[in-house]
């Protein structure tokens, strides 16, 4: 794990590639980058919390006027692109999404985007994160949230079942409980937001190979972090690695192992 935070996947080069693959996956599944229900205006301001490589905002920058302000936030700057690779209207800043919002950012944004907090939120404790996002929004602003529901997996085959059993063990060790994802509408309403839509439709067949590869790409660094912790509840490392290798070999023969996407769109009331 990172010395500065609790991110289980690390921030190596391959992890940036995985995040960018998942961005393309969400685009294919959703059919958009920014939800078409969100009106685009030349003077609007958009924030991305937990931005990683900034891929979501970099994509958005091609779709909105150059006068739109794009601000990317993450607890770590290790995956931020070089300044020469950023549009002029895009900035990057380190910020802890579970902390208080700086005064100058309160009520600043027309849109706040979140994605893939499933392996950051522990013990279903989302209140601080949702509060932070809500504080960033202007009255009338939109919260767009794309999530991976790892509590609703699509599994087929003995090899996939073996990896699923390992995941259940890991959940107990790491305190990851994904039930909060299906409860996002209620949690958003409790934070004072108006929920406009919440969708948990399975991936189409055209996406299954992509999401499966993305899942496996996430397991490799995740497994490394887990075994560095030395937790006695873990099975022998070689057993876990053999299970993952067996799943990879079984994929061409019909094995299935992937999560269900979830998408929330909510709005902060004007008054």
UniProtKB/TrEMBL annotation:
Pfam family for this entry, one? Methyltransf_23
The family assignment reads: Belongs to the methyltransferase superfamily. LaeA methyltransferase family.
Tell me which PANTHER family the record gives.
METHYLTRANSFERASE (PTHR43591), RHODANESE DOMAIN-CONTAINING PROTEIN (PTHR43591:SF110)
Q: What is the official name of this protein in its record?
A: Methyltransferase domain-containing protein
Q: Which InterPro entries match?
A: SAM-dependent_MTases_sf
Mind telling me which CDD domains this protein's record contains?
AdoMet_MTases (cd02440)
């Amino acid at each position: 794990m990172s010395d500065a935070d609790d991110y289980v996947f690390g921030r190596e080069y391959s992890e940036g590639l995985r995040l960018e693959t998942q961005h393309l996956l969400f685009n294919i599944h959703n059919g958009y980058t920014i939800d078409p229900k969100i009106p685009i205006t030349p003077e609007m301001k958009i924030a991305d919390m937990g931005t990683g490589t900034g891929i979501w905002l970099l994509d958005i920058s091609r779709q909105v006027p150059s006068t739109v302000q794009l601000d990317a936030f993450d607890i770590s700057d290790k995956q931020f692109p070089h300044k020469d690779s950023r549009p002029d209207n895009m900035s990057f800043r380190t910020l802890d999404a579970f902390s208080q919002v700086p005064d100058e950012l309160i009520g600043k944004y027309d849109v706040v985007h979140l994605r893939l907090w499933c392996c950051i939120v522990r013990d279903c404790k989302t209140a601080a994160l949702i509060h932070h996002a809500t504080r960033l929004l202007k009255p009338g602003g939109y919260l767009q949230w794309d999530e991976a529901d790892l509590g609703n997996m699509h599994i087929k085959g003995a090899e996939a079942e073996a990896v699923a059993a390992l995941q259940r063990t890991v959940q107990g060790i790491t305190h990851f409980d994904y039930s909060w994802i299906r409860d996002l509408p209620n949690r958003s309403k409790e934070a004072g937001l108006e929920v406009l839509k919440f969708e948990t439709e399975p991936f189409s067949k055209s996406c299954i190979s992509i999401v499966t590869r993305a899942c496996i790409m996430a397991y490799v660094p995740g497994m490394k972090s887990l075994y560095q912790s030395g937790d006695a509840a873990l099975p022998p490392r070689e057993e876990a690695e053999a299970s993952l290798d067996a799943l990879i070999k079984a994929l061409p023969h019909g094995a299935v192992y992937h999560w269900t996407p979830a998408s929330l769109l909510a709005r902060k009331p004007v008054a």
